[in-house]
Structure formats: C-alpha cells, structure tokens
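Trying the structure run again after the queue cleared.
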Amino acid sequence: MITINVNRISFDDTRVLRAVGAARKQALQAAARQIQRTARRSMQQARKDARIPERELDPEVRERRKIANRIRAAQGRPRLKPRMQASKPGQAPNASARSPLRRLLRYAFDLQTQSSVIGPVGFPGSDVPRVLEEGGRTTRGDDRIRIAPRPYMAPALRSNLARVPTHWRNAIGGR
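Done. Tokens:
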C-alpha cells in the first residue's frame, strides 16, 4: 500500500502568469510576422512587358512625356521609362521592392490590449493605404480620383488564419 501525505501545495501564480504573457506575446508576434510577409509577397512588381504602350496614353500625357524626354536628352540623361500598368481591381497592388507601401508594412505587439497590430505606417495625412485596401476616392496632385479596391491585408489575414494555432502550440512548456 502506498500512502502520500501532502501537507502543503505551493503555486506561484505570478510566475505562471508571466510565462503565459510571454507566450502570448511570442505567439502573436509570430502570427503577425507571417501575415506581414504574406501581405508583402502579395504585392507583385509589375512585369516589364506590362508597360503601357505610348500609343495608349492620353494625348496630353504623351505630349508632356515627349517634352520631358527632349529636355532629358539635352541634359544627357536617359529617357523616361514607360509607366507600368496598375494591378487589376480585386488583386493586390503592384509595388516595387523599394515601394513605401511594401517597406512601411509593419507589425507590433500592443501591451495595452495584448494584441498584435499589422499594417502600413508612416503615411501621415495620407489615406492611400486604406483606399487601396477598401477602394474609394483620394487625391493625386490636384485631381480627385476613384480607386477600385486592391486588398492586400485582408487576404493575407485570411490565408494565415489556419496557421495561427501552430504559433500557440508548445508556447509555454514545450520549448
């Protein structure tokens, strides 16, 4: 016969809560990092063969480009490259590797709400990231233009939702 006598059980709740808090932060940051990468990768660079042919440009734009190219030639500078075509509505926006939208897509862990925040930062006074995601009107120079939605954050979140639980697996004890 086995007898177990337990006189006193000790439970350090602050240590457990600290471990849970650290695990939550680590798991949420890993999930946010994955969503950020997916959103960045969804923004393709427009292919070189997807340039807008000169004959399809607005006559006024074509004339301005001709003048600019003459000035550049006189200065010994290279000609302006043809414009890349925009992405189709419903697809992620086209963005080069050095694009501010791609570069300034960040994530952070918010201690106050114990959650992760992911999205473009550093666009003060600009609504372009929101307009690209949701569609709407914005200004380009002096003109008001309408942009169809070109979502990049919502699809990135949707495609990573199934992976979020893997970031929590073994977060506290199983390191």
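Helices lie at 13-42, 59-74, 100-103, 128-134, 153-160, 164-168. Worth checking whether this holds up in the mutant runs.
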